[in-house]
Amino acid sequence: MIHHIERAPGKRACGVCGASAKYVKLDGRFERTFLGVPVGFKPQEIVLHGHLQVCFWCEARVREPIPFADGKSRCLRALGRYIVGLCGITTIKNVATLMGVSWDLVKDLFKADLEVRHKRKPLRKVRYLAVDEFSTHKGHKYMTTAMDLETGEILYAQEGKDAEALIPFLKRLKRAKAPLKAVAMDMSAAFANAVRDVFGATVDIVNDTFHVVALASKAIDETRKDLVRKLEGEEKKVIKGTKFLLLKGKENLNPEGMTRLMQLMAANEPLYKVYLLKEELRTFWRLPNEEAGKAFLDRWTAEARATGNKHFTKLANTLDEHRPGLLAYFRHWISTAKMEGTNNKIKVLKRQAYGFRDMAFFKLRLYFLHERSIMMPG
Ligand SMILES: [Zn+2]
Q: What does the angle CA 297 – CA 300 – CA 303 come to, to the nearest 5 degrees?
């Protein structure tokens, strides 16, 4: 459907020098074609038969202003809003196909909208953060992200995984006078140093469940590997291929897995001891208060050292080093779990990001990941 339109010749001031309407007259024509919001499956084309206007004062001869489209855009502003709305529920590719426009056009509209909304996001209410990194290029490039744990929004994303990657954001929070209380993170020093650098000791660091349990899993797997190397014959056979039995939480094993685990434990006492330690460590975050936490850590680290297992002794040392960060959990009750929960969404997004051709766009989409209810690759 093609619509021909012409603006009623009203009073218009000079857009160049600002002279009032009485010094401006219409002189000459121009034509521009726009895309409108489709009606059903019918695309709508709008042909504007425009006027040129000449100013008596500055002698500029320019096109009359167009109130329903931006700059050189071929889209009506209404179509732009419609396209952006659709981007919230399906992929760019689907929107482009549905609207009969190019992928790039949809992307540009979507990106511009996200940019505006991201700039408007206030930081002055942020109280609890989680920071973490994920790999963008198969383990040799990383991106650091920070999430508001109360709203689930990713507020910041930056290439790199060192303190430098996080500091600019923390400074912005400080300038915005955010009442930041605590930051959940892994046990590496980089993020902790960044928080200390910017906020001193006023903000607590919480070393969370996810990363500590991951270390315990690694310790038990190393123990298993040592045994496989050391043992022979029948004993070695029992242990080989048990990695997932050992790493899974007990409650996630099926009856067959449980039986196999029992057999394994009966056959190997040192492995049994550290397995119990690993499972017990997971209960730390269910304790009622800091006092119970302190008692737990004292006992757990002593038992871990008593096994003589070098991987668990090392873990006990790590937990001692991070004791304040572990106990801080009982003051704030936060973890990076929510952030780990979005990792699947990020994975889908990574596939959609076409090899990160546009890093700024990728980051903007991270900032609005919490809004997307439907995610499909494409
Ligand atoms: Zn003028």
A: 145
Span from the CA of 63 to the centroid of ligand 1 (angstroms): 12
Q: Which pLDDT tens digit goes with each residue over 360-372?
A: 999 998 998 888 6
Confidence of residue 176 (pLDDT cuts 50, 70, 90): very high
Would you list the DSSP string of 254-292?
Answer: -HHHHHHHHHHHHH-HHHHHHHHHHHHHTTGGG-SSHHH
Q: How far is the CA of 23 from the centre of ligand 1 (A)?
A: 8
Query: Across 137-295, where does the E strand assignment appear?
Result: 142-148, 153-159, 182-185, 204-207
Ligand 1: centre distance to CA 62 (Å): 10
Q: What SS3 class is residue 104?
A: helix
| First-last CA distance in the chain | 30
| Widest Cα–Cα separation across the chain | 102
Cβ contact 179:127 at 8 Å: yes
How many angstroms is it from 7 CA to the middle of ligand 1? 20
CA distance 209 to 293: 13
pTM (2 decimals)? 0.80
pLDDT in tens, 322-354: 999 999 999 999 988 888 878 778 887 877 766
